[in-house]
Amino acid sequence: MPSVRSDSPAVIHRHGRVIVLVEDDSGLRTALERVLSASGFDAHAYGSAEAVLADGFFVGADCLIVDLNLPAMSGLDLVVRLRRRGVDAPAVVITALDKASIRDEVQRCGIEHFLVKPFLGSALVRLVDSIVAGNSSRNDH
After folding, report:
1. What pLDDT was estimated at residue 12?
2. How far apart are CA 139 and CA 84, in angstroms?
3. 5 pLDDT exceeds 70?
4. How far apart are CA 102 and CA 9, in angstroms?
5. Helical segments of the chain, H only
């Protein structure tokens, strides 16, 4: 992976962008948090939906990244619950299950972004970049 200088435009663009990551696999959670943080995002990682709800940090999130299959409450249920609380940050569902029925369920919950595991960290960063950039342009108007 090429090194990124702290004054590079990509890092400056991402600085301060809050990403909430929910993944129950601790190894993958740590890896994704590191990739996002190294890319200049302010990444906050959690092992469960309940941990996110208990922390309350989601209020300022620019993007939510949620695993579909979490131990108790699913990633979809978490996003629906956050939407009811007024959190409108765009969400990405990550899952190893790539089925049309799952994609349909994700879309019915109002989530447009879906990433199938395994994926490259750079693919996640590119997706989050495009989401955050789109969200910024909507907020600027």
Report:
1. 42
2. 20
3. no
4. 37
5. 9-14, 26-38, 49-55, 75-84, 100-108, 121-139
Q: Where are the domains of the chain?
A: 15-133
The CATH architecture one would assign to domain 15-133 is: 3-Layer(aba) Sandwich (3.40)
Q: Could you tell me the sign of the dihedral formed by the alpha carbons of 24, 30, 33, 36, in that order?
A: negative
Adjacent-strand bridge partners of 93: 66, 114
The two structure tokens encoding residue 126: 């590119």
pLDDT of residue 135: 61
Residue 93 contacts residue 111 (beta carbons within 8 Å): yes
SS3 45: strand
**CB neighbours (10 Å) of residue 27?**
8
* 86 phi and psi angles, rounded to 5 deg: 95, 5
